[in-house]
Amino acid sequence: MPFLLIFLQAAPSPAGSFLSGVLPIVLMVAIFYFLVFMPMRRQQRNQKEMLKTLQNGQTVLTSGGIVGTIVTVSDDTLILRVKPDNLRLQVARSSVTSVVGAEDQAKKS
User: Fold this and answer.
1) Fold of 55-108
2) By C-alpha distance, which of 89, 52, 49 is closest to 68?
């Protein structure tokens, strides 16, 4: 009889076992979400907003590494003027990765 009491006292409860097994996994998923997915969604939202607000005269950098000044903006495409020969290129609006600011241009000159 004493052996049975010792065995029953030493056995973990099923609810505690389940909670201690699932809780670390839930915490890892939550941490992964806050460290990876939230910043990625924020960056996508900022990129989308930047693409909406493109205007003539802005200097932009494309995903191919081309730096040019926007001459014409249409729904899906842009026409860029690329120096030094004032070459005009038609690029997809989605290929623009960033707007090059005036302070960045001053550093290059």
Assistant:
1) SH3 type barrels. (2.30.30)
2) 89
